[in-house]
Amino acid sequence: MRESRPFDQAMKCVFIFESIHRVMKAEKLLKGKGIKIDLVPVPREISSDCGVAIELSTDSEKEACLLLGENKVSILECYARGPEGRFEKKVEIKI
Amino acid sequence: MIYFDNAATSWPKPPQVKEAMNRFMEEVGANPGRSGHVLSIEAARMIYEAREALSALFHVKDSSRIVFTLNATESINLALKGLLKYKDHVITSSMEHNSVMRPLRDLEKRGIALTVVPCFEDGTLDPREVEKQIQSTTRMIVLNHASNVTGTLLPVREIGKIAREYNLLFLVDAAQTAGAYPMEVDKDGIDLLAFSGHKSLYGPQGTGGLVIGERINEKEMIPLKQGGTGSRSEFEEQPDFLPDRLESGTPNGVGIAGLLAGVQFVLEKGVEQIRQKEITLIEKLIKGLKEIPQVKLYGPESHKDRMATLSFNFTHLSPSDGASHLEKEFGILCRPGLHCAPAAHHTIGTFPEGTIRFGLSIFNTGTDIETAIQAISQISKER
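Structure tokens for the assembled complex are given below, as produced in the milestone run.
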């Protein structure tokens, strides 16, 4: 039987956006729909960029992608954080 | 003291503008979009909200298409120098401010053809005169939304239609109208809207912006400056997306915080209500000054054709002497001279002496107007 885990230990994914403007727009949309997210510095393993990314539970990933797509906020890349904390790039999302 | 120099910069500002700037300095203060820490994110949120508020005001669908600048002048320079190419033909009016005329005259020396369409003596413009000047090489029409000298409104919507019909770019200098006159960027046929933040948007000096319409391909627009944007830091080339492409270097965070508060003030009051109040004031002023024989008024009489900015002269005094009397004897602050718009003064027949200009704002009162009329009446009797 799978153990239920609190949010901060749950499987997470990270959305990377083109610009801080899009991150801010995405934050407002997602929080507005009650989707729990965190703004985090873009993880070093993903990019040397100095920007901000959105981290959320994989449980909310689909809903979040749909909402952002409907509002024309394109996600540049999506990464899943594996069980050992490593980031793996998921299929590129272009909406 | 009565402040009538709002066409140069508005004063006073709503108290919430100063409070927002203070709050930004005390509680936020960080560089937006440069880091993932909480203060940097808070600064980025504020800048995002400022773009959103401006989008609501100008009816812009995608707020990333609003870029911040220092002032309307920088916005106009960015639009002209970012888009015009060698041998392009540009049409403008004879009521333009030097923020339009100087970059265009400079570009003319570099191979851009320029036609300046004459306006009538009250500053109004017949759109058909603009249409007549369109050639096969015409690429852009540049127009003042309202004159900073006479307050005359120019026919933006009609010329917007012409620009769309001939597939021309349309740049509007809204320094005198943004926040004080209703506008809808797409409906008005505007491709580029240059605005200042420190006049009728009640933000601090050092704020302004440019709306880049959907018809403009931002990838083809050359930035005035390149540099750090906080995005795509691994590359040495400028990003090709908005707003980053046209916004390099640390922005004026504290200024934009003030501008956001100013735009919120305008949105809460309502542009139509602001215009109604300003029209009431300017009509009262015009009515009072018309009774004084030693005063000559410029610009259109009907409020439909004007903003709350008025140029006038004493028949027996130079503009600078008149303004000096107004300040020293009555505490009325205004601006005499050419108002950085020699073309407009040629058009209304007041070059090179210029005029005395009163620029009103929502914070002026009927009592201010009565005091001014009495003061002008008294000065006119002094000799």
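Residues 38-58 of chain B form the longest helix (21 residues). The mean pLDDT of chain B is 97. Further analysis is deferred to the final report.
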